Amino acid sequence: MSASAARGVTIDDLEHSYGQEPVLHGVCFNAEPGESVALLGPSGCGKTTLLRLIAGLEKPSSGSITIGGELVAGEAWVPPDRRRVGMVFQDWALFPHLSVAKNVAYGITKSPNKDSEVAAALKMMNLTDLSNRMPATLSGGQQQRVALARALAPRPGVLLLDEPFSNLDTNLRVEVRTEVHGLLTELEITSVFVTHDQDEAFIVGDRVAVMREGEIVQTDSPQALYHHPVDRWTAEFVGTMSLLPGNANSGVVDCVLGSLPTDPQLKGSVDVVLRPEQLAIDSGDEAEVQLIEYYGHDTMVFVSLGNHQLRVRCGASTSLSRGDRVRVAFIGDQALAFSTS
Question: How far is 228 from 321, CA to CA, in rounded Å?
Answer without folding.
Answer: 33
